[in-house]
Amino acid sequence: MAGQGVFVLGGAQTDFSRVWTREGLDAADLIREVVQDALGAARVDAGDVQVGHVGNFAGELYLGQGHLGGLLVEADPAFAGMPTSRHEAACASGSMAVLAAMADIEAGRYDVALVVGAEIMRIGRGAESQRLLAAGAWVPRETEGVEFPWPHQFNSVAMEYDRRYGLDHRYLGAIAANNLANARQNPLAQTRNWTFDDRAFAEDDEANPTMAGLLRRQDCSPITDGGAAVVLASGTAAREWAARRGRSSDGIPRISGWGHTTSRMAVADKLTDAADSPYVAPHLRRAIVDAFDRARIPDAAALDLIELHDCFSISEYLMIDHFGLTDPGESWRAVDSGAIARDGKWPINPSGGLLGVGHPVGASGVRMLLDVARQVEDAAGDCQVPGAQRGAVLNMGGSMTTTACFVVDTDGVA
User: Fold this and answer.
1) Angle 364-376/93-106 helices, nearest 10 degrees?
2) What is the DSSP letter of 192?
3) H/E element holding 282?
4) How do residues 313-342 score in pLDDT, each as one tens digit?
5) C-beta of residue 92 within 8 angstroms of C-beta of residue 52
6) In angstroms, rounded to a whole number, what is the distance separating the alpha carbons of residues 29 and 10?
7) Cβ neighbour number for residue 48 with a 10 Å cutoff
8) Bridge partners of 344?
9) What residues pair up with 117 in beta bridges, in sequence order?
């Protein structure tokens, strides 16, 4: 029976290969479409939704459009008068919207919440999009005179791994290749029809040119348009929802644990502060451990899969050891052994991850939560990890500045 936790009644994701402005569509169209699809998938009437939360990073910069909570109300006539909020934390914006909705439900304010993550970014040349994305770093301290700020930021992380432990690029290339291979099975992935040969993941200056230091083109996630939405509910609402559909509430996905940390803004300051820790990002490790503690699981051995924030291949490499899949600095062992493959011991990003599915910044956290919920409900289609009962999400914003981790299972899991 549904008990503690916040429950995921269902949700939807747009096709991340679409370019919305080329279709003559805007943020209101995107939000309306994904909301209506989510309500249909969850089999929830719009009038039953009591509160709405929107995750979005840079609507003002890309589209000149702010106040996205108002656009959520435009998604259905039944939403008129419904309280809504918009949340921003760079690439973790969607997870901040999820956390706010969870707090509403856990406080007893509301029983049913709608969470939407949305971003339209493909408005012109990639260089312009990169310039706008730089707003998530410390401007101008980290951005002035830097052509590609985010590859530059995450190269600093890669260089720190190389300094501490040594870093062989072939493992970064293997991470990218694995995620893009998984994405080919995902009908909503931006890269599902993209093709590459082995040179595209190697240290090949022609097929995989350098973007910044140790990072190359395929180490970087693409610029993406898209949205994702989930309907969250209290235990009481989940039981009522299940009873109306003649099903048990035991199999409804629930968020059983969460962690949320915010570190210093500049990547250089983070790395300096972490000098005495075996972990390159100890605040990220703390968010994971907090989520495990709240979910009452001992460690990553209790997980069947992980959807994590591979905005760059090095970010996945970092998260492997921070989840405890290997000792610090030995993430390469999990890559080399095949443990992170879909049929491995700990499948990572069976959806394709940000590298393969795409990365509409405000939507990624919500999309990752939806994908793990589908996994534990055995509803992930060709991306399904057989027998998955518990998974984790790790979403971060900026240069690991804001981190959110969720554990998702079903109430029947021991």
Assistant:
1) 60
2) T
3) helix 282-295
4) 999 999 999 999 999 999 999 999 999 999
5) no
6) 20
7) 18
8) none
9) 55, 228
Greatest alpha-carbon pair distance for the chain in Å reads: 61
DSSP annotation of 268: H
Angle between helices 126-133 and 149-165 (to 10 degrees): 70
Sites in the chain below the pLDDT cut of 50: 1-3, 414
- Residue 412: what pLDDT? 59
Those residues whose C-beta lies under 8 Å from the C-beta of residue 269, and which sit 6 or more positions away, are none
Closest CA to 19 of 129, 125, 123, 127: 123
Token match 């509430």: residue? 249
How far is residue 75 from each of residues 25, 27, 30, 62, 111, measured CA to CA in Å?
Answer: 14, 11, 9, 21, 20
Residue 28: how many CB atoms within 10 A of its CB? 16
Digit-coded pLDDT (tens) for 166-222: 999 999 999 999 999 999 999 999 999 999 999 999 999 999 999 999 999 999 999
Distance of alpha carbon 1 from alpha carbon 238, whole angstroms: 9
Torsion angle (degrees, nearest 10) of CA 134, 135, 141, 143: 20
Q: Is the dihedral of CA 151, 152, 156, 162 positive or negative?
A: positive
List Cβ neighbours of 292 (8 Å cut-off, separation of 6 or more): 257, 259, 298, 299, 300, 302, 407
- C-beta of residue 321 within 8 angstroms of C-beta of residue 167: no
Q: Residue 229: beta bridge partners?
A: 12, 116
Per-residue model confidence as pLDDT tens digits over 268-285: 999 999 999 999 999 999
Residue 349 structure tokens: 């990003």
Distance CA 266, CA 128 (A): 22
Q: Is the pTM of this model over 0.70?
A: yes
Residue type, 395: N
State whether the Cα torsion 8-114-287-134 is positive or negative: positive
By C-alpha distance, which of 389, 393, 380, 387 is closest to 410? 389
Separation of alpha carbons 208 and 201, rounded Å? 6
* Positive or negative torsion for Cα 19, 24, 27, 32: negative
Task: Say whether 320 sits in a helix, a strand or coil.
Answer: helix
Rounded distance between C-alpha atoms, residue 145 and residue 121, angstroms: 22
Number of other residues whose CB lies within 10 A of the CB of residue 374: 24
